[in-house]
Amino acid sequence: MNFCTHCGARVELRTPTGDHLPRHVCAACGTVHYQNPRLVVGCVPEHAGRILLCRRAIEPRRGFWTVPAGFMENGETLQQAAARESYEEALARVEIGSLLSIVHVLHAHQVHVFFRALLPVAEFAPGPESLEVELFDAHDIPWGDIAFPSTDFTLRRYLEDRAAGREPHHFTAVSRRVTGPAADEAQA
Amino acid sequence: MNFCTHCGARVELRTPTGDHLPRHVCAACGTVHYQNPRLVVGCVPEHAGRILLCRRAIEPRRGFWTVPAGFMENGETLQQAAARESYEEALARVEIGSLLSIVHVLHAHQVHVFFRALLPVAEFAPGPESLEVELFDAHDIPWGDIAFPSTDFTLRRYLEDRAAGREPHHFTAVSRRVTGPAADEAQA
């Protein structure tokens, strides 16, 4: 961040009075610009026992597989965001179920939230950000080609829970970078 | 938002190609500035059956009671944020427990996340953002003077669950504004 969104003057990095962290502060108008983690929301859609995955058409991690997920928008709930992303990325109309996982992606300043979901009708197709969309049996999931650690964690917990007949939620934190260009920058 | 954080030129509100919502786009360098919901994280600290509440020293809702909560910072987990806020607002060292509630505060573009928490030792005092900090028996909670709908929802679910001996999590959405100056703007 170089310039103030309010007045356009240069910002400087300093700790405001009474604060405990350095912030971008406008040298002209004094506005403090906070930067906070962003929410990425998705789901694991299931149809007749199989899981819907999308192969990414965009960076980061183009060509790798993931569940439908993306940045939450203002004015929607987490569940609405998860359903919207499923439609945008896979043209899939899902019913959002229970909370599945919350992954703190520390280095990317993101919190990823995933839900279980039902795909009642097997209708889907690649949206503009997907190369392919496909239903996978559990033993066919391409584990070596999963796009993000948060997706890998979430899919594994999903399958374990399903096998055990339960629906808890899981927390984890990841701080490692995955291979590939700018893989931690976004998951839009 | 008036100016680009990257180059300082004026931004305009338009829907980028391939997008579905209007964004602030820089007329000079083309940077798209996304605005996403921010996470506010807190907890309900309990000591010997009583609940720790803080009376706010700052706007919005100065003088009203709330549980310790505030904006999540980059690089921390939700649980770390909840513990940090308890220390900042109440000088209370808490142990964060299970997920209690997720409240979509739609009009404020915020998602509030609350945890159950244990205050092992009854040591606390007002931090710079609190006028008073006090332990309340359930029947003494000042329901008429609770700062935010998300706090009210969270405290009620906490007490119901405790009475029933269970620890589920709860979702809700609020879109109403509460009385008082700019009550929906922030909860830092």
What amount of the residues of chain A lies in strands?
Answer: 25-35%
Structural class of chain A: alpha+beta
Distance between the termini of chain A: 20 Å
What does the overall shape of chain A look like?
elongated
Tally of DSSP β-strands of chain A: 11
Counting DSSP H or I runs of 4 or more residues, the number of helices of chain A is 2
Mean of pLDDT of chain A? 93
* Low-pLDDT segments, ≥5 res of chain A: 180-188
| Oligomeric nature of the chains | homodimer
- Main sheet characteristics of chain A: 8 strands, mixed
Record keyword descriptors for this entry.
homodimer, 188 residues, alpha+beta, 3-stranded antiparallel β-sheet, elongated, disordered C terminus
Question: How does this model look, in words?
Answer:
The structure is a homodimer of 188-residue chains. With 188 residues, chain A is an alpha+beta fold. Chain A has helices at 78-90, 149-164, and strands at residues 11-14, 23-26, 32-33, 38-47, 50-56, 65-66, 69-71, 95-105, 110-118, 130-136, 170-174. In chain A, strands 4, 5, 6, 7, 8, 9, 10 and 11 form an 8-stranded mixed β-sheet that branches. Chain A has a 3-stranded antiparallel β-sheet with strand order 1-2-3, with no helix packed on it. The radius of gyration of chain A is 19 Å and the shape is elongated. In chain A, 39% of the residues are buried. Residues 180-188 of chain A have low confidence and may be disordered. Chains A and B meet through helix 1 and strand 8 of A and helix 1 and strand 8 of B.
